[in-house]
Specification:
- This protein has helices at residues 13-21, 38-47, 60-65, 74-93, 103-108, 142-147, 152-170, 184-191, 194-203, 205-227, 251-257, 259-271, 288-294, 310-317, 329-334, 337-351, 371-383; strands spanning 98-101, 116-119, 128-131, 176-181, 232-237, 275-279, 299-301, 322-324, 357-358.
- The protein is α/β, with parallel strands linked by helices and 385 residues long.
- It has one domain: TIM Barrel (Alpha-Beta Barrel), CATH 3.20.20.
- The protein is globular and about 60 Å long.
Length: 385
Amino acid sequence: MIKFPIGKPEHDCEELLSVIDGSKAPQKVYSIEVIVDEEIKKYIMENLFDCDYFPSIGTSERLLQSSKPLSSDEDYKKTKQDYYRMYMDFHYRMGYSIVPDHDFIINLESFNRVSLKVKDTALFSRGERVWAQEGSGLIRSWQDFEEFDWKKIELLLEDYNRHLEFMCTILPEGMSIAVVGAMFYQVYAWLFGAENLFYLLKDNIGLVEAVIDKMASATLAMYEIAASKPAVCALWHGDDLGFKTSTMLSPQCLRKLVFPWYKKYSMTAHKSGKRFWVHCCGFKKDIMEDLITDINMDALHSFEDVCCPVVDYKKKYGTRIGILGGVDVDMLCRQDETGLRKYIRKILESCMPGGRFALGSGNSVTNFVPVNNYLIMLDEAAKWG
């Protein structure tokens, strides 16, 4: 197995982007991830890097009680910057040329007071695991809408601009940043809650439109900040629009309420010379032409063998868009080494010809993925060809 961390990693984000765009044939397999869970990073930093891990700083209580940007607090700022230096070093030494940045949506979760919490039984437990609110969320009426502190999101935008400027100063040569955002996820996961949203689509569509417009506008403002930074290469939009057998909302409903915003995000990226990538879990066959033709996304991420196998999507769409990731998380968790290597090689054999592909997990490297299996995936990428 290739030794990780890599001693002298060679980064070339421009070549990787050219491969994903289809303008250059791949000379090797590039690896990419939208998320590596904190518990996995912690284990690798402490056991493979032999260095200290700095936990990410909690923002919830600070943000909700503050009337000014958190970045004005020098202690908070220093702790946060220490974490992100470590975060950047992790991606650098593990061979990733593109670093995903989730800071805005992480801080946005500070408003979430309704998601369900249960015991985390994962291999690398974080104590509690959060589940989306399937019943009713924070907003059930126009009164709830009016009482929600939308103005505090403006403080997040001020913080995010300062954060991204800092990230640009510590970015190693040859690497780039993909800024990760979301807007519909928050709408159904905790602003409305899934069941409440479905009823309101019939009973109070005006309220649904108002909440979506508020969240989507904030995300657009964040993307405009990101697109202005030379070190940012892509806007990586991460709503989970589907589950195993269908989209969360009908394609017609998505076209009315959600996709006009996606089009704005894509245009924001493209007018600044950035890419617009989409992370979309679950069934998406019925909206692929919307994403490709109307929204003009540049690459798609999130694949699951049971409903959207990466091999099939590469075969059908790989001449039109980039395909990112693809190693089914269930396989990544439960296969032994022989089976996992065979499975990954089959993906590479199918997806590498023609380029427009980067290898990674089908969703994310979760805290229930065995670390050795994660390293096997990186090892197969490094040894290919």
